[in-house]
Specification:
The chain has 101 residues and is α+β, with helices and mostly antiparallel strands. The chain contains one helix and seven strands, in the order ββββββαβ. It has one domain. The strands form two sheets. The chain has a five-stranded antiparallel β-sheet, with helices on one face. A two-stranded antiparallel ribbon has the order 1-2.
């Protein structure tokens, strides 16, 4: 049995035990931050029914590969959305363009 977390669209999913949840995971939204036509970060919220997870993929300047911090688990979609909203606001303040995907 592998300890690696499953992936959805190239991003790790939280807790491999989440498969026990009756409802299938549902992607709520994706936000893509870019600056000067370069990807900075990708945020994806996934609702598991009993929790909501935000996955992040960050593209550091000069790095060959992205970094995947997290996942960030919240009790519900409202909390996850508040987290992403604050993150997006900070990225906009730093000069990033935000795309909804």
């Amino acid at each position: 049995m592998s300890d690696a977390a499953p992936e959805l669209g190239g991003l790790r999913l939280a807790s491999p035990g989440a498969a026990a949840v009756a409802s299938a995971p549902r992607e709520l939204f994706v936000r893509h931050a870019k600056r000067d036509a370069r990807s900075i970060a990708l945020l994806r919220a996934v609702d598991y029914g009993d929790s909501c997870v935000v996955e992040a993929e960050v593209y550091p300047a000069g790095a060959a590969e992205s970094v995947r911090p997290g996942p960030y688990t919240f009790a519900d979609a409202h909390q996850a959305t508040a987290f992403v909203t604050e993150t997006v606001e900070a990225l906009m303040y730093l000069g990033c363009d935000i795309l909804a995907e």
